[in-house]
Amino acid sequence: MPSLSPAVAELRRAVRSVVADLAERRMVVALSGGADSLALTAAVVFEAQKADATVVAVVVDHGLQEGSDAVAARAADAARALGADARVVRVDVDLAHPDGPEAAAREARYAALRTVARQEGAAAVLLGHTLDDQAETVLLGLARGSGAASLQGMAPERVDDEGLRWVRPLLSVRRETTRAACAASALEFWDDPHNFDPRYARVRVRESVLPVLEAELGPGIAEALARTAEQLREDADAFDEMIHETIEDIVEHAEAGISVSVAALAANPAALRNRIIRLVVDAEFGASLSRIQTLEVARLATDWSGQGPIDLPGCSAQRVGGQIVFTARG
Q1: Is 32 assigned to a binding site?
Q2: Does 150 count as an annotated binding residue?
Q3: Does the annotation list 311 as a binding residue?
Q4: Sign of CA dihedral 215, 220, 225, 231
Q5: What would the pLDDT profile of 137-169 be if each residue is shown by its tens digit?
Q6: What are the tens digits of pLDDT across the range 189-209?
Q7: Is 172 annotated as a binding residue?
Q8: What is the sign, positive or negative, of the torsion defined by CA atoms of 37, 43, 46, 49?
Q9: Which residues form the tRNA(Ile)-lysidine/2-thiocytidine synthase N-terminal domain (predicted)?
């Protein structure tokens, strides 16, 4: 009997605990047809058989490339051959999206996955992001100066407002391992041409920046970036718990909005104060503040000289007596 490929074994170990936790339930696997998602599907199906769980592979056809329907159909056929149920979902991508076609495609894809998961009664959606994807995400966040939140990279798991789990079990697995697992299992995967198009920043990081860092600083850069993301997430989780405890004491509901105690904001360290401001605006108005906007709001508490209301995304902030009042914009 042939020995098990080390790459296949690593993939199965990576998904085992997640699948076991979903025993006797349905789960969705996001399948593009690429090596990462195909290797993930194969590993999940194998482990699901032991856990009496059902796997539904969902292939989202964005319709952005000629022949994308054929690629989607082949991916679905590969999933069925592995033993999964499979569905192809065609989506419309808003090419005029303010954040560009990548963001538009991502939004459409996640919406489609959420819809299918709801229809199937699935408890979780499994995504095929690898350690390499995590490293690229951290580098992009660093280059954009997006702060500690972006340097945390992608979370291994999150639960959305509907209670659906979004799980990335391969964040400790290298991309080369998924390709080796496919080769060992005779799984024919698809290489998306967009993954080699230098017009995309992520491709430039993958093909140019990371190799240079590896050559100049030594091997292990991707692993180091992934470890950094993990450590920052641990710090952020602890910090978020502190923030929520603080918010309960200093935030009050106001007419058409919400208010925060000036004295309490001013008494907190800058890092905590700024996070409170961002969290309040995000939670109440669903808007994200830039660092400049956050600091301008903070000045209402720390550097008050009579300045008037500050216009923010979705709301305005104004100092009224001992409160900073955030009010929805009409």
Answers
A1: yes
A2: no
A3: no
A4: negative
A5: 999 888 877 666 667 889 999 999 889 999 999
A6: 999 888 888 888 899 999 999
A7: no
A8: negative
A9: 27-207
